[in-house]
Amino acid sequence: MRPTLFRVLLTTALVTALTTAGCGSGSDSGSDSGTKAEDAPTIGLFLPESKTTRYEAFDRPLFEAKVKALCPTCKLLYNNADQDAGKQQQQVEAALAQGVDVLVLDAVDAKAAASLVNQAKQKRVPVIAYDRLISDISYDYYVSFNNVRVGEAQGQALLDALTAKGTADKGKIVMINGAPTDPSSADYKTGAHNILDGKVQIGREFDTPDWSPDKAQQQMEQAITALGRDNIVGVLSANDGMAGGAIAAMKRAGYTTLPPITGQDAELAAVQRILTGEQYMTIYLDIRSEAEKSAELAVGLAKGEQAAATTKVNNGAADIPSFLLDPIAVTADKIKDTIVKDGFYKASEICTGAVAAACAKAGIQ
């Protein structure tokens, strides 16, 4: 009896082990849940910073959700560099060492990232430049917005506001541009100058390291000191975070009525400021389309598939197959039919506290 029982137990254990080994599942953000498929591709998403709220609130979850919908067995590897190019280098190199199959990279430093792309190419790992164009090396795709048009939309909105107020030729504007390490910043700046040059006086212009709201506040304080509070009629801010810094500087300087100020990213705080009149406009970027398109391309690359690009963008070394989305300029009267209608924010998220009355005036409920 004893040998027979032993054989039964041994057979049962072997069947159980083989059954378990044959059943696999994907992992969430690189960690296993139960068992895993050994041949499931790993897609790495590398974002540059978290001071701009869009990255953690929208880009990451939208990208990850789309990848999982298209490829349930795909594994996801995510890192945020906290605006540190050295940290991002370590993150990407670690991912390559771990055998990542596709890199989706929003570079902290577009030029420095070329070496990371080169390392990926040596390992035959395809690369998608996400949101920011990586310079001076060829790679598979670039997905972003038409950044020159972003700057043009900001410049035109500011010019329209100044013209309506009759102040376009009555003073000077301050330009607060983005990080000099981000090629998108140069495009935004080019677009804004395309509209504003020859039509307004630019009193001060700054490039803002790290897109930092704190540094933007310091720059605005310098501009107020140099130009005089009453001589500043408008502010061209490249994004909402820096607009918030500039507004803080103007309030501190004693402005009772703020001049028109632009922004970008449709951050919740900025949307609320637009409704209450502190900020004039923002650029609404359809981040869902950007993130989901990038996810589609990444899954395709993981499966060995190529997609036909809608255009090409030269990055100094090659014409990169690109997908560029159009920006939307949003003032208070357009929030309901864009940001709220698209579900970017719910009315209940926007219309809190002192903003409720402004929401009612704008028909947002």
The DSSP helix count reads 13
Helix content: 40-55%
Structural class: alpha/beta
CATH topology of the largest domain: Rossmann fold
Reported for the largest beta sheet, the result is: 7 strands, mixed
Count of structural domains = 2
Physical arrangement of strands within the biggest beta sheet:
2-1-3-4-5-11-10
Give the terminus-to-terminus CA distance.
77 Å
What does the overall shape look like?
globular
Which properties best describe this structure?
365 residues, alpha/beta, Rossmann fold, 2 domains, seven-stranded mixed β-sheet, three-stranded parallel β-sheet, 13 helices, 17% strand, globular, Bact_Solute-Bind_Prot2, D-xylose transport system substrate-binding protein
Structure report:
- There is one protein chain.
- It contains 13 helices and 12 strands.
- The chain is an alpha/beta fold and 365 residues long.
- It has a 7-stranded mixed β-sheet, with helices on both faces.
- The protein is globular, with a radius of gyration of 25 Å.
Task: Give me a quick take on this structure.
This protein is of the alpha/beta class and 365 residues long.
SSE inventory with pairings:
Blueprint: H1 2-21, E1 42-47, H2 54-70, E2 75-80, H3 85-98, E3 102-105, H4 113-122, E4 127-130, E5 141-145, H5 147-165, E6 172-177, H6 183-196, E7 201-207, H7 213-227, E8 232-237, H8 240-252, H9 268-276, E9 282-284, H10 287-302, E10 311-314, E11 319-325, E12 328-330, H11 336-340, H12 347-350, H13 356-361
Parallel strand pairs: 1-2, 1-3, 3-4, 4-5, 5-11, 6-7, 6-8
Antiparallel strand pairs: 9-12, 10-11
Helix pairs in contact: 2-10, 3-4, 5-6, 7-8
